[in-house]
Amino acid sequence: MFVLVNCKTYPCDAVEVAEAAAAVDETTDARVAIAPQAAQLAAVADTGVETWAQHVDPIDYGSNTGHTLAETVADAGAVGTLINHSEHRLKLADIDGSVQAAERADLETVVCANNPAQIASAAALGPDAVAVEPPELIGTGTPVSQADPDIVEDAVAAAAAVDEEVSVLCGAGISTGEDVVAAGELGAEGVLLASGVAKADDPKAALEDLVAPL
Amino acid sequence: MFVLVNCKTYPCDAVEVAEAAAAVDETTDARVAIAPQAAQLAAVADTGVETWAQHVDPIDYGSNTGHTLAETVADAGAVGTLINHSEHRLKLADIDGSVQAAERADLETVVCANNPAQIASAAALGPDAVAVEPPELIGTGTPVSQADPDIVEDAVAAAAAVDEEVSVLCGAGISTGEDVVAAGELGAEGVLLASGVAKADDPKAALEDLVAPL
Amino acid sequence: MFVLVNCKTYPCDAVEVAEAAAAVDETTDARVAIAPQAAQLAAVADTGVETWAQHVDPIDYGSNTGHTLAETVADAGAVGTLINHSEHRLKLADIDGSVQAAERADLETVVCANNPAQIASAAALGPDAVAVEPPELIGTGTPVSQADPDIVEDAVAAAAAVDEEVSVLCGAGISTGEDVVAAGELGAEGVLLASGVAKADDPKAALEDLVAPL
Amino acid sequence: MFVLVNCKTYPCDAVEVAEAAAAVDETTDARVAIAPQAAQLAAVADTGVETWAQHVDPIDYGSNTGHTLAETVADAGAVGTLINHSEHRLKLADIDGSVQAAERADLETVVCANNPAQIASAAALGPDAVAVEPPELIGTGTPVSQADPDIVEDAVAAAAAVDEEVSVLCGAGISTGEDVVAAGELGAEGVLLASGVAKADDPKAALEDLVAPL
């Protein structure tokens, strides 16, 4: 399973979370990665943890101010990027452009979406993976795998119908190892997490609990 | 073939274009429709022509100011709507919401997109049709069916691979009956037009030329 | 006092509200106007009531799809327009462009904003009026003139400091004649209303109550 | 004079530009600063040069993905930020929010705008400075101080009329020391530069030429 921890703009110490993740990653078959803010990418990558960007813009080198260039986040140490997170929705044409920009910079891509129809839509753009996160469950502490298992299975089926190469992650409300196992049983190949780890008093203990049953 | 004339915000007399379209529609097997601005929908529908909206928002009845509600454009006489036109790009989640809003109001839907990958993506959201319009050809007078026939065939194949029920229109640079025939031969079931008719000195003659070979 | 009723996308009969407003307008010194959706402008204007648009885009005649052109809403009977309503926030450069577009089409302009600093900012763009609507009070039924009288006085002072020609309306929570009087005493030359009239069981009675103390 | 070099997403070596700027800054009364991409802030700040962000979002700590938090760019070493650059236009309410976010994090603020009316509007939000950049001159190599000196003088007057504490920078087409001197004579207290330095074969020589006449 792929466990991707989104640090958002939480008041957490991203390097501390990264060090915890790097340590836990060595103890498990799961693959653990951290997505900090752009300005923290280099410091997080220096810990040796697998580092992801939270977003890249559908742009190339050139006259763009205040945007996130795929090549620059790759240079800072990122190996993948979220695209179209529910807190950063993009136009369809720009998701396409961001996936292409990320591929140009050799970044792995996870495109987020709300429901199985949008998951199919996202999968059609050829990312490495899609992530289904029902907006009504985000931040609730109720895992999607429990609150609405059908949506995960439907998302897995929807993505496969469009492109069998595209794997599916699930997010929203995941906070325990049981949730991660349940997500895997529904066909997800990974999970998106945020507050459960990044805002935990002890991020390392939180991650250890998460990967323990894997 | 479906011939949909987008009047944009051109300085044309939308009612005159509508009357021309209504007259020509009676003389041909082609299906001719007009998409005026929202404030002109009722006057255009009064001519008897098939009337389309240029856009609907992903909203329901409620607290929305300056937005376009599907039910209101239907009440004004529209029977269909464009969504995600290249001059009005939407977020993926909002294309999904607009398609659902339109269906709720019994409006037929055409979702526009730039290229075959985005066409597949749009088709996955379940509209009645998708329209491929390469941005670099819009307004050039060079028809996509001639400048880039592969893109039309690829769009037809991409949509069919996702959902065989979704038909494909093509746009960008269409201005003659020959272009419409060529589009049909490439698998398109209709065309999107704008300046070729709406800005013609004689919209009726322009439409007659367009449908003559059909 | 100017009493401007925003019908939003409420499930109300905009023509019925307009007829009520036209009737009440004849009985009072207050100036009563109605802002329906774009597709309803012509039908509302036909009632003889003063008719406003809810929004115009920062565009001119040309290649724009699904946008609201100032000239077209004026042709449909509008004499003014809201700009930058809290449900339709615009970029600063686009507020400037929308004010200019509206002036080009001889539409009166009211630019909305959240707080005194933004009111000064809006006033600097030269509209006819600005409207202060604290977002936290919208739809609460608690009038801004009562919940936060300072914000209205500060908005009046902020606008005057930038341009004495720009008048100030206030909105958010206004529903009684008393609220309108209180707004006037704080320096506002008008009020923005929505649900209190547009969603009333008897819009005419609601408007009569509103203007009774004026 | 304040000389702020915006590195945009140019294919330049931001650290090399920063080292050049740090060296030149020591030789001149002018104040030289560099604005790299967010992911490069820490590396640029490590050179000792005054470091600026290209943008901050109108957000606080919390659930925001792919956004730029003022506190995080400050932690990475930035001491100021551009806001509302012409390549990153914001809603009026969001410019207000970004200025407040920047102030909360002790970042100096420069709000960009197109013309004197928008400059007054930006000044009303209380930033430290505003920057006038006529979009039609950006990237032309023709300095605004030469192509349209009135716009600089009008911007200086417009800002002063709203708030005398707000200083004015000018941008667009600045590339020589003469342009900087001319900007100062028109009342500007600084200049925004980009390609003239960041894309120069020898950024240090380019900066030395720029500050030589100061």
Instruction: Describe the sheet with the most strands of chain A.
Output: 8 strands, parallel, barrel
- Helical content of chain A, roughly? 25-40%
Task: Please provide the count of β strands of chain A.
Answer: 8
Q: Give the terminus-to-terminus CA distance of chain A.
A: 8 Å
Largest interface in this structure? A-D, 39 and 39 residues
Please state the CA-atom Rg of chain A, rounded to the nearest Å.
16 Å
Instruction: Report the total helices of chain A.
Output: 10
Q: Which descriptor suits the 3D outline of chain A?
A: globular
User: What is the oligomeric state here?
Assistant: homotetramer
Residue windows where pLDDT falls under 50 for at least 5 positions of chain A: none
Beta-strand proportion of chain A: 15-25%
Which class best fits the helix and strand makeup of chain A? alpha/beta
N-to-C order of helices and strands of chain A: EHEHEHEHEHEHHEHEHH
Mean pLDDT of chain A: 94
Query: Which strand order does the major sheet of chain A show?
Result: 1-2-3-4-5-6-7-8
Mind sketching the topology for me?
4 copies of one chain form a homotetramer.
Chain A: E1 2-6, H1 14-25, E2 31-35, H2 41-45, E3 50-53, H3 70-75, E4 80-83, H4 92-104, E5 108-113, H5 116-123, E6 129-132, H6 144-147, H7 149-162, E7 167-170, H8 177-185, E8 190-193, H9 195-198, H10 203-211
Parallel strand pairs in A: 1-2, 1-8, 2-3, 3-4, 4-5, 5-6, 6-7, 7-8
Helix pairs in contact in A: 1-10, 5-7
Keywords:
alpha/beta; 10 helices; homotetramer; 214 residues; globular
